[in-house]
Amino acid sequence: MRDPIAVRAVVLRRQGEQVAIEELLLDPPGDGEVLVRILASGVCRSDLHVRDGDWPRPTPVVVGHEGAGIVEAVGPGVAAPRVGELVVLSWYAPCLRCAACRVGRQWLCSGSSSGTHRLPGGRAPFRDPAGAEVLGYLGIGTMAERVVVAAEAAVAVPATIDPASAALIGCAVSTGVGAVIRTADVPAGAAVAVIGLGGVGLSVVMGATLAGADPIVAVDRDGAKLRLAAELGATATVLSTDAEETAEAIRDATDGGPEFAFEAVGLAATAELAIATLRPGGTAVLVGIPAVGDRASFAVYPFVDGGRRIVGSDYGSTVASRDFPLYARMCLDGRLPVGRLVEERIAMDAAADALAALRRGEGARRVIVP
Fold first, then answer.
1. Which residues are CB-neighbours of 67 under 8 A, at least 6 positions away?
2. Looking at the domain that runs over 5-170+317-368, which CATH code has it been given?
3. Where are the domains of the chain?
4. Is the pLDDT score of 1 beyond 70?
């Protein structure tokens, strides 16, 4: 297979404008690359940040960074994954050579090409019919019928997992569950609060349940999300109102404040709320990523006097080759009910509507099934 492949994809031509479906050309995989037929792609708030221009990114770009599919071809030098395997795509493909990778901290890789939205060799994965480059968001651009990605970005998982659930492992699940069991290492019996119940926040709830935390207090403005959080393991829920009333309700539900407060929205106000609720010795784990330039503040004296901490959790401290198969097995054996996060399965043509619903805060995760 050496000829270019025609694929439909969701393209953002300029930030702040609407996404649209375009037909693009995809060159076959080169050295260290694999061709993946996408079976499912989640619509994540990060895609909305890019579309709205909250995070400056180069364009034109195929959006999407939460996907799963079948390997259809591999380039020279690729031993894994193999043709025919179901893979979950990682939006931060490690270089495996830098100092962070050498000590097993691949989520801090300094040599990844993912941030360039190109393949490791520097080429853009897509071209338009006129031959102009089209980038793939974070090097994978999963809202497409097919993608070519670095082999390190494609991790094989059991073939029996639902592709929609597999796709969510690539971002929401690894980010949320990993924040609990990898970044924060929450012990059994710890009091936990989870602020924001999108796909990532609900994954934090699942991770806290998996860790044996108790109580687990879920916080959101949406009653339907609170009910889903309770079904996923939250022992108490708080319908968010104004900041002080919400903080007091969280403290009441955790006997004075959580030991771990997870912020999963990506707003300065909710980061401040997480910090304000902590009991002495508590840790605020900031999982959501706000718009570039946003700043938060907190009262320094009680923070220091109470021995409190703030921890940033990037991608749930994920090592994709280790964690994706683990989370997939947990999904299959019922310990991680990832399928409950799937709000709706939609066609690619509904991507713009799904982003609008995300902006309105509706539902957990919509998944594009090309």
1. 36, 38, 40, 41, 42, 88, 89, 140, 142, 143, 147, 167, 170
2. 3.90.180.10
3. 5-170+317-368, 185-312
4. no
